[in-house]
């Protein structure tokens, strides 16, 4: 098939590396010698002059060939294995370069460049001291003009790396002003002063020296044996006077393998105390053995222990106070002043111009007094609201900083690379509680105003600004302690407190699991998790204070489905995985975001297994969830590489997509499968240990994993396997391969690769179009032959495998790799025959992969749909969720493309024949009982999917049942003043279906009833399902009302976080689908102005509103994009939707008539019901 936008590599054909053992993991061995070239001889008779000419031409040709070979090809190595045969096939000796043709990139010429968006590297933050006073309504009286604002002072200790007369910080919508007296620059020096010091006997001194924080109360066996030989220093940051103490917490760069460093604070280290300063009155802290601070960001609070918990006296101790000279930091004016301020709104930066330069290698403290807004846009510091049990509206303040919103709360170095220590003090209304990243140092301390109290938090570990967090609320918490002594709390509004217990248990289990898995202790003293009524993302991994939407943290078995319970477990596991991978070690820049999110996604699966004791079978679930999402999204031209340049501000928010999360986790899982679990863990431990409290790039991880690879484990070409080289081909170019199988003779098949694309007509972005590796990959091949797993081998270009005519070959066994497989017709037929005969010969994950590959290849017009549909013939015997889920997804594509055409009836009849055998076995009475049994999770999910599909094809037995449930178990059992979560008797697992069907088939009375229930509901899970049910209405006037309500930025009827969900729900309604795009076009300018600061929210609204199929749709869409070029050009989601629209149109043109006729014929057959 002709393809655009990729190159075919001109490489020689590879042979197998030394094969690993049959379990698919590594095996070591000796590489074979490279294959030798064989010269062919021939004879030519000619005249001498002609011979000379031919000789010169030959020499020129040889030189040209050598040059081409040198620059284009790699050497060929022949490393024979059991099934390896060297292949020479001229079908793969072509190189195609896609020219940069087609429509040029639509780039805003006025947009700032990538370089302009970055802060200069002339300064580096060491320490922040932030005091903030948010005016949160509903608690105390204050001047009206201060409502929903905050006042703050921040002192930033900075180190100068290059001489500069400017301080450039990230800042957005902050009240900085032109009063230059609010900006002061200080320097600090070590001076000897006399202080009063406690003197205690030997017993007490020993107690202090051996004290440790709860975070290090328990360590791994390896940690206990490791030694640390480093001086501990404190950060002079914003303290007027801070004393220095020596300890032994710094990592030794020259430690031996037998004496590795500790993974947390040393058990015997000297505690380090740090003081908060006021700008006028210095304070002191005693210390001994004072030394100069050099590596402040590395050592400031990494080894800090809590003196409060260490200073326990025995009955024999005696105290006295004596005068002692100690050396302390003293702050003094620097003699440098701010002479002017430039605000760069388009760059989200503020420039402080100085009257004198800051000297290189010097440290300064820059103090800023400023104000800012408490927004309602779910970014920076924002306001959340809810209704309490008395019906009163209550308020809380929360923060969301990732990716670039810390600058909305504090002027700072708001890039991941600039790690620093944070000291935070919150002044908040009486009756509220303040929670931040670190444990409290003082709580509810009185202030000059009796209505306000102060909470001071201990210094954080060095961390990036996007991890800073603060919550001001009257929430309550449940608390427990991990086996390592970490204080663990889960917070919620009072009414939901009973729903936090599952998350608390899950969090403790998984935090302990990760500490053991990484072999590195959790480095903080406490871990908090907050459930907020309003939160932009599903959750955010702020170090020590993870924030969640209520639905992703709270679990109530009386309203939450099994999948929602799983979602809570997965989200908790994902965010706590970040506490090491992302927080302890952080990406250097957003182009490596995929490493943070991909790894946390991967680790969420074993994390959930730890939480559920393996009952959720997460290795299977991964195949249907993350891997499937990755394969779908990355098959389009509008995808992107995992690692790609951040060229504009929108690129940062757009990087938070399925490629980053799902493909990232799928590639990491594939590497884990190649290395094996033990070696993978060894590499991770080395990486985390080497880069803890630092920043890293993806190649740092590959290098650490390389250290775990045995010297005699080989790549495809016989050289030692190199993770760096292997991973580059999967992360630095977009897409993935499809492996095609063809038979050579009765004993052999050949496999080769090419890039898989759903649509060959759409071109990639110019910067991705000609991929670095020509869209070729080194592919690990896991396969089974007649049900027996064979050793893993490699595919580079093409390969032969010994397979007899009657043998059953299944590639990508257990769906370990990120690729699809397309067999020849006999190969597919052999698989279908086996599934019909005994499907259990093929494992569950492989069955699911076969079904999904077949349907996707058919959708892409690379396999007859008849082949994919023939695979489904065996499903009447299938009892596992995973294969069924893949088959139903394939069927959903058919339903979507058949839309409401008359031929849809033929498709529905065929689907009925597939699912009816399972549907008839379902006991509806057990639905409200079995769902709480985790052991039956997969069985229950399969039953719910079958019921949903049976109703979706409008089978009366199903639709009548759910309509009766709506009337009898909801409307008749709930009074108008009662919340549905308290009175509904509809089985929890099918409430979404029942509520939607009740609205769809009901009238005005049913709609008004559910509207009242929506307004009264306080449980977010139940409120969400009612909201989505309201979108099922078939009344056009009501749909338009819903759309107007959702698009209204100021309306609180639908929370900001839920607006995209409402658009998506209306778009899923066949009638709503016809309305929502028109509404979107008519109101786009208003929508854009309202939500342009919420990029993720707006992208989700767009994708939920645009679902097009015809030429007319596409023409209308193109006109819309042209008309609104200014506001749509930088949103890639519009290009994604255009590609999907064209794919839909192509599908209908290629498949609709053929499939409609095929289904009609199948249904007319006497055996159709048994198909």
From TrEMBL:
Residues 1-36, 210-235, 247-269, 305-324 are annotated as: Disordered. GO terms for biological process: peptide catabolic process; proteolysis. Its cofactor is Zn(2+). Signal peptide: none annotated. Keywords: Aminopeptidase, Cell membrane, Disulfide bond, Glycoprotein, Hydrolase, Membrane, Metal-binding, Metalloprotease, Protease, Transmembrane, Transmembrane helix, Zinc. Belongs to the peptidase M1 family. Residues 27-36 have a biased composition (Basic and acidic residues). Gene3D superfamilies: 1.25.50.20, 2.60.40.1910, Neutral Protease Domain 2, tricorn interacting facor f3 domain. The chain crosses the membrane at residues 50-72. The active site is at 575 (proton acceptor). Residues 210-219 have a biased composition (Low complexity). Binds 1 zinc ion per subunit. This is Aminopeptidase. Residues 809-1128 form the ERAP1-like C-terminal domain. Residues 220-232, 251-263, 308-320 have a biased composition (Acidic residues).
């Amino acid at each position: 098939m002709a393809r655009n936008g990729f190159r075919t590599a001109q490489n020689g054909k590879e042979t197998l590396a030394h094969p690993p053992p049959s379990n698919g993991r590594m095996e070591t061995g000796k590489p074979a010698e490279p294959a030798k070239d064989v010269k062919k001889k021939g004879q030519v008779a000619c005249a001498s002059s002609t011979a000379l000419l031919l000789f010169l031409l030959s020499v020129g040709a040889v030189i040209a060939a050598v040059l081409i070979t040198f620059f284009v090809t790699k050497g060929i190595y022949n490393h024979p294995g059991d099934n390896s045969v060297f292949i020479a096939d001229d079908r793969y000796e072509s190189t195609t370069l896609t020219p940069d043709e087609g429509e040029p990139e639509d780039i805003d010429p006025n947009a700032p460049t990538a370089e302009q968006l970055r802060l200069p590297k002339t300064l580096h933050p060491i320490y922040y001291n932030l005091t903030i006073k948010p005016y949160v309504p509903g608690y105390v009286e204050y001047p009206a003009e201060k409502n929903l604002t905050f006042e703050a002072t921040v002192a930033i200790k900075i180190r100068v790396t290059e001489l500069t007369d400017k301080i450039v910080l990230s800042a957005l919508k902050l009240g900085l002003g032109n009063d230059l007296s609010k900006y002061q620059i200080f320097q600090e020096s070590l001076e000897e002063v006399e202080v009063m010091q406690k003197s205690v006997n030997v017993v007490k001194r020993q107690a202090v020296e051996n004290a440790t924080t709860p975070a290090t109360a328990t360590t791994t066996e390896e940690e206990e044996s490791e030694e640390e030989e480093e001086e501990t220093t404190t950060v002079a940051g914003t303290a007027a006077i801070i004393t220095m103490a020596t300890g032994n917490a710094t990592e030794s760069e020259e430690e031996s393998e037998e004496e590795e460093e500790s993974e947390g604070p040393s058990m015997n280290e000297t505690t380090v105390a740090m003081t908060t300063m006021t700008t006028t009155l210095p304070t002191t802290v005693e210390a001994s053995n004072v030394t100069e601070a050099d590596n402040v960001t590395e050592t400031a609070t990494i080894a800090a222990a809590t003196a409060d918990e260490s200073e326990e006296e025995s009955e024999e101790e005696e105290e006295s106070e004596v005068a002692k000279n100690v050396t302390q930091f003293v702050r003094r004016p620097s003699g440098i002043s701010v002479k002017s301020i430039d605000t760069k709104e388009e760059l989200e930066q503020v420039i402080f111009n100085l009257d004198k330069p800051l000297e290189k290698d010097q440290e300064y403290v820059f103090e800023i007094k400023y104000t800012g807004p408490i927004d309602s846009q779910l970014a920076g510091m924002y306001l959340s609201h809810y209704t309490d049990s008395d019906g009163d509206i209550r308020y809380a303040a929360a923060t969301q900083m990732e990716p670039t919103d810390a600058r909305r709360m504090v002027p700072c170095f708001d890039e991941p690379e600039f790690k620093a220590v944070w000291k935070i003090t919150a002044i908040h209304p009486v009756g509220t509680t303040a929670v931040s990243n670190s444990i409290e140092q003082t709580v509810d301390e009185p202030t000059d105003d009796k209505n306000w109290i102060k909470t001071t938090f201990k210094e954080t570990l060095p961390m990036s600004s996007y991890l800073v967090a603060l919550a001001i609320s009257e929430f309550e918490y449940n608390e427990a302690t991990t086996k390592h002594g970490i204080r663990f709390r889960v917070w919620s509004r009072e009414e939901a407190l009973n729903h936090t217990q599952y998350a608390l248990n899950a969090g403790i289990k998984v935090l302990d699991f990760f500490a053991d898995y990484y072999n590195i202790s959790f480095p903080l003293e406490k871990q908090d998790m907050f459930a907020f009524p309003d939160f932009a993302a599903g959750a955010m991994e702020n170090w020590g204070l993870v924030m969640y939407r209520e639905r992703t943290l709270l679990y109530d078995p009386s309203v939450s489905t099994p999948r929602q319970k799983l979602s809570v477990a997965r989200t908790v596991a994902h965010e706590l995985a970040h506490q090491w991978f992302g927080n302890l070690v952080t990406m250097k820049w957003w182009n490596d975001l995929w490493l943070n999110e991909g790894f946390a996604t991967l680790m969420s699966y074993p994390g959930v297994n730890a939480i559920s004791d393996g009952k959720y079978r997460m290795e299977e679930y991964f195949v249907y969830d993350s891997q499937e999402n990755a394969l779908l999204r990355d098959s389009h031209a509008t995808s992107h590489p995992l690692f790609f340049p951040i060229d504009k501000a929108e690129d940062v928010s757009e990087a938070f997509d399925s490629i980053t999360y799902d493909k990232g986790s799928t590639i990491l899982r594939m590497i884990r499968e190649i290395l094996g679990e033990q070696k993978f863990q060894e590499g991770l431990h080395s990486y985390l240990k080497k880069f803890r409290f630092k920043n890293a790039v993806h190649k740092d991880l590959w290098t650490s994993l390389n250290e775990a690879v045995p010297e005699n484990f080989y790549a495809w070409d016989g050289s030692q396997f190199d993770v760096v080289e292997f991973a580059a081909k999967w992360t630095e170019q977009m897409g993935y391969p499809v492996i095609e199988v063809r038979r050579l003779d009765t004993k052999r098949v050949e496999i080769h690769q090419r890039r898989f694309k759903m649509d060959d007509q759409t071109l990639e972005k110019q910067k991705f179009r000609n991929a670095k590796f020509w869209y070729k990959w080194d592919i690990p091949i896991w396969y089974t032959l007649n049900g027996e797993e064979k050793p893993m081998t490699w595919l580079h270009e093409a390969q032969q495998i010994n397979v007899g005519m009657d043998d059953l070959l299944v590639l990508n066994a257990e769906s370990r790799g990120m690729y699809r497989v397309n067999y020849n017709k006999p190969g597919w037929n052999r698989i279908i025959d086996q599934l019909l005969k005994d499907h259990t010969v093929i494992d569950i994950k492989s069955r699911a992969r076969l079904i999904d590959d077949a349907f996707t290849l058919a959708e892409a017009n690379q396999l007859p749909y008849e082949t994919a549909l023939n695979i489904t013939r065996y499903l009447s015997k299938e009892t596992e969720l995973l294969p069924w889920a893949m088959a139903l997804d394939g069927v959903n594509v058919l339903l979507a493309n058949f839309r409401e055409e008359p031929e849809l009836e033929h498709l529905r009849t065929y689907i009925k024949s597939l699912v009816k055998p399972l549907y008839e076995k379902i006991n509806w009475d057990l639905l409200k009982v079995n769902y709480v049994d985790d052991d039956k999770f997969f069985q229950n999910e399969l039953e719910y999917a079958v019921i949903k599909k049976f109703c979706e094809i409008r089978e009366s037995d199903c639709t009548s049942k759910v309509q009766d449930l709506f009337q009898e178990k909801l409307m008749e059992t709930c009074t108008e003043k009662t919340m549905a979560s308290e009175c509904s008797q509809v089985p929890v697992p099918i409430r979404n279906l029942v509520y939607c069907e009740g609205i769809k088939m009901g009238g005005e009375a049913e709609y008004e009833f559910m509207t009242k229930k929506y307004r009264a509901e306080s449980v977010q899970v139940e409120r969400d399902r009612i909201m989505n049910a309201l979108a099922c209405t078939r009344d056009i006037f009501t749909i338009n009302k819903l759309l107007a309500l959702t698009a209204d930025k100021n309306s609180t009827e639908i929370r900001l976080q839920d607006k995209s969900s409402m658009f998506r729900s209306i778009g899923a309604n066949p009638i709503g689908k016809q309305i929502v795009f028109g509404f979107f076009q008519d109101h786009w300018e208003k929508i854009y102005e309202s939500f342009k600061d919420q990029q993720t929210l707006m992208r989700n609204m767009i994708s939920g509103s645009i679902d097009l199929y015809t030429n007319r749709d596409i023409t209308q869409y193109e006109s819309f994009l042209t008309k609104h070029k200014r506001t749509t050009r930088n949103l890639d989601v519009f290009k994604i939707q255009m590609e999907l629209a064209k794919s839909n149109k192509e599908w209908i043109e290629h498949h609709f008539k053929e499939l409609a006729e095929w289904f009609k014929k199948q249904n007319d057959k006497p055996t159709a019901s048994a198909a």
